[in-house]
Amino acid sequence: MAATNPGTATLKAARPSASGTWRQLRTPLVYLIPAALIMALVTFYPLAYQVWMSFTDYGVIKEEGKQTLNRFGPDGQPPPNYRPAQGVGFKNYSDILTNNPQFVARLGGNFNFWRLLAFNLWWTFSNVGFHVALGILIAVLLNVEGLWGRRIYRALYILPMVLPNIVIATVWRNMFDDQYGAINQLLSMIAGAPVGIRWFNQIEPPIPGVPLPLSYYAMLIANIWLGWPFMTIVATGALQSIPKEMYEAAAIDGATGPQQFWNITLPLLRPAMVPAAMVGIVTTFNLFHIIYFMSGGGPLGQTEIMVTQAFKLVNAQQLFGVAAAFSVIIALVLIPIFLITNRISRATESYDV
Amino acid sequence: MSSVATTTTTQTRKGSTAAGRRLRWWQQLLFQALCLFIAATVLFPIMWIVSMSLDPRNIARPTELRLIPPGASLDAYRAVLDRPTANPVTFTELALNSLKLAGGVALFALLIGVSAAYAFSRFKFPGRQYMMIAVLAITVLPAVATIAPLFALLNGIRLSSSLLSIALLIAAALVIGFGLMIVVPALRASTASGGTYAVGGVALVLGLLLVYTALAPARSDVFVLRNSLLGVGIAMISGALPFAIWNLKGYLDTIPRELEEAAIIDGASPNQIFFQIVLPLAVPALAVTGFLSFAGGWTEFFLSWQFLTNPKDFTLAMALYNMTGQYAGSIPWSRFAAFSILVSLPVAIVYLLLQRYIVGGLTLGGVKG
Q1: Domain ranges of chain B
Q2: What count of CB pairs under 8 Å joins A to B?
Q3: Which of A18, A179, A229, B119 would be A12's cystine partner, CB 3.0–4.6 Å?
Q4: Does B123 sit within 8 Å of A311, measured CB to CB?
């Protein structure tokens, strides 16, 4: 495969001044080809196919009776109940974006795109806000000189990171169970009377005027538990590179503890925390497991996020065309987030050769 | 990027160097109380699940909160290892399916990804920036958002089982041949290094896996690619490969290039540099990226849940979902607890071992956590 004889080629490729695009391209191309071929086949082709699907009614329409998406029957001919996809133009997009009543009814009546989007964004930023704030505070706490057992605490505090997300989500789901869950039992022990909070089923918002159901708060607690240790680790790394002399100098100048925190610690943590927060935002925006396994989007679809809705469109409703349109919309929402992330963390900026 | 690199790699200043200052006793007390409270919240769910799994009463549903169980028994583990869910599959079968998926995807993504990562990290060529942005953009897209086309496309691929076996055997021959092509010349020239052997070993394992799959008895006449572990694996590669490329590229960027420059001066070819210098230096990076891909595959849920219908193909994550919440039915929670622990333990142990490298890489390499 890599049989080009490349002794000289690299030398030239290593030097930007070397002439000829082809010469520059030849060696890297050999290394790129396997991945490029595979990605073209299993990543980019499906994405292109997805865009095509989003303009069709590909899927199973229950009102039309039993159907199959399988084009090939036992004899190689399409089975009688095979339903070929037909182009519908922008109908899928307009159904989603305008909450077409007929379409919403087909999904069970709880779908509202703009509420979904707003919840997804609020979910993301409220979680990451807690993660970063707690992460920094706990890192500062652990960085206090002379604190006993720092190593033990540091070792304990990373435990939430090492467990698989799906296990964390299912365990917290059971902990918030209204009958047998540990949270209600703990509250009962504290209150001295049986507590039966219906964490996932209560529809009325617990804080009047704030349209967030109780299940949001349950999942917020679970996800805060899951998310802050990562931020603490990043912040700890950054804290340890802040020279002690800066604090000493500030102390001599009469700066108090809080002043030192706001004027030295926070600004110097920023370069490390901003990329980490960006990672957190993208991860939390797409955090499938917590939502799907804990509330399942309930009650009444109020805690649904984009990715769980996309999965339900495929898994429960079998509306592949709509799901494809929905996924394209997810990508369009993520592009600005991605561009901002990329700009701030400068991830694709060229490595100085 | 550079700022992150410095903060994560230069952890030289230890907080304990200036031990002169001491906390006053009430400060120490306050901070200890805080730290203990945080530790309690961290440990609460873990203790809860461990104690439930060990409870000798083998409880169906916990009716009171007991973090330290009265006595201990491994009954729940025994029951779960035998038959975790209502489906006729044993734990071993579930774990084996998850292992095949996770291991296959991780190996494949590493093998293909490392050369692309090398190209991105070490060469300047026209279009590099755009290709990197394309790879990074894919890692930002949620895997769930590509499930519709992957299902439709893989569902359309149907083969008679014998044809499939032949195709798999050809693929196995290609993979093993590729491995031999790399190892044999190196052995002849006696320039074989750890990297060469690693590539050869991986190719051999993949090839044998393919042969095994090809020769395993077919379950039905028509093989539907979507409804098989192979199909789920292909769908997972769709996201795992860009992730591996991006992650490895981040690590390779941090490897100093003086050695390579010295090798170029000594007249080494790019292939020699790649196999004998870069690959051996990248072993920690390969281990971490491979582990992260493996951990993702080990608990992969939505693709397997959507694609697979045959209980013999079910994976650990699917069984876990069957044991949770309203789907749990009559499955005792003590078994759910034992099962969760058995699923988490291998991943958690390796994570703790590789922790130092992983944390550095997560902020360095990629956007996807």
Answers
A1: 97-365
A2: 350
A3: A18
A4: no
B19, B49, B270 member nearest A171 (Cβ):
B49
Q: What is the mean pLDDT of residues B93-120?
A: 91
Amino acid residing at B96: L
Distance, CA of A170 to CA of B171 (rounded, Å) = 39
Residue B82 Cα distances to A168, B92, B347, angstroms:
23, 8, 21
In CATH terms, the fold of domain B97-365 is MetI-like fold (1.10.3720)
Which of B136, B222, B348 comes nearest A162 by C-beta?
A: B348
Q: How many CB atoms lie within 10 A of CB A262?
A: 12
Minimal Cα distance from A243: which residue of B?
Answer: B13
Inspect the interface and report whether the beta carbons of B7 and A167 lie closer than 8 Å.
Answer: no
The pLDDT of residue B244 is above 90: yes
Residue A49 and residue A285 in contact, taking contact as beta carbons nearer than 8 Å: no
CB-based contacts of B244, cutoff 8 Å, min separation 6: B109, B110, B112, B113, B114, B117, B289, B293
- Return the closest-CA partner of residue A211 out of A85, A123, A307: A123
Model confidence at B55: pLDDT above 90: no
Cis geometry, peptide bond prior to residue A299 (ω within 30 degrees of 0): yes
| Residue B290: Cβ-neighbour burial (10 angstroms; 0-12, 13-18, 19+) | buried
Could you give the domains of chain A?
A: 120-291 (1.10.3720.10)
- Is B16's CB within 8 Å of A279's CB? no
Cβ contact A225–B306 (<8 Å): no
Interface of A with B in 100-119 (CB under 8 A): none
